[in-house]
Design goal:
The protein has 208 residues and is mainly alpha-helical. It has helices spanning 10-25, 30-42, 46-58, 62-74, 82-94, 100-114, 120-133, 140-151, 166-169, and strands at residues 155-156, 188-189. The protein folds into two domains: 10-98, Tetratricopeptide repeat domain (Serine Threonine Protein Phosphatase 5, Tetratricopeptide repeat), CATH 1.25.40.10; 99-208, no CATH class. The protein has a two-stranded antiparallel sheet.
């Protein structure tokens, strides 16, 4: 009918928003850069999402550092790089431009990477990070992982994202995700750190 308004689909609205945000991003608007990354994540464009999260992270957005590190940890739209993922999580933890939930998630996800390491030093650091991530008792996944480590249970750690709708939150998790071809064990919970010799005082792994 002439003069009628054709409603846009959800995908079309996202693309419309992306075009709007691109103009702002070109002027250095950090929020617009992050919004573009989020939009591409929702649209399932993992490569573009990772690229824009990287731009936002390089601009100093601590929450985007967590998102980009997660991409690197799981090979989501980029080549999997655990060394760079650890570096980005550490930068996020130290950032002044990150929300508290983002910092807690960075602490937890960094600990997940460190738990893959066979060294006692990495495991002790992972325990400190896990305790710090759940210091206010609102991160049950971190608490369960601490309990698994204490009991010596073996298993793959959950890396579902916090505060994302379930379809996106579970997507790359090796425990709950539905994607095929994921690395077999992004984080295998191993045994607690071995006790040190009596000639050296053991670390209690307490939070900072």
């Amino acid at each position: 009918m002439a003069g009628s308004i054709v409603a846009m689909t959800t995908e079309e609205r996202w693309h419309c928003d992306i075009r709007k945000w691109r103009r702002k991003a070109a002027r250095g608007d950090g929020a617009a850069i992050s919004n573009i990354a989020v939009a591409y994540r929702v649209l399932g464009r993992s490569g573009l999402s990772a690229r824009w999260f990287q731009k936002a992270a390089m601009a100093g957005d601590g929450d985007a550092m967590v998102d980009y590190a997660y991409c690197l940890q799981h090979g989501a739209g980029v080549r999997r790089d655990l060394t760079l993922a650890k570096e980005m999580y550490r930068r996020a933890i130290q950032s002044d431009h990150i929300c508290e939930n983002g910092r807690e998630e960075a602490l937890y996800l960094l600990s997940v990477i460190l738990l893959r390491d066979e060294s006692d030093a990495s495991r002790r650091e992972a325990l400190k990070l896990l305790k710090a991530s759940n210091v206010d008792g609102d991160y049950p996944v971190a608490q369960r992982l601490l309990e698994d480590i204490a009991s010596g249970m073996e298993g793959v750690a959950c890396t579902c994202r916090r505060h994302l709708r379930l379809g996106l939150a579970h997507l790359y998790c090796p425990l709950h995700g539905r994607r095929r071809g994921q690395p077999p064990a992004l984080a295998v919970v191993g045994k607690p750190p071995r006790a040190k010799s009596k000639t050296k005082p053991p670390s209690d792994g307490a939070s900072r």
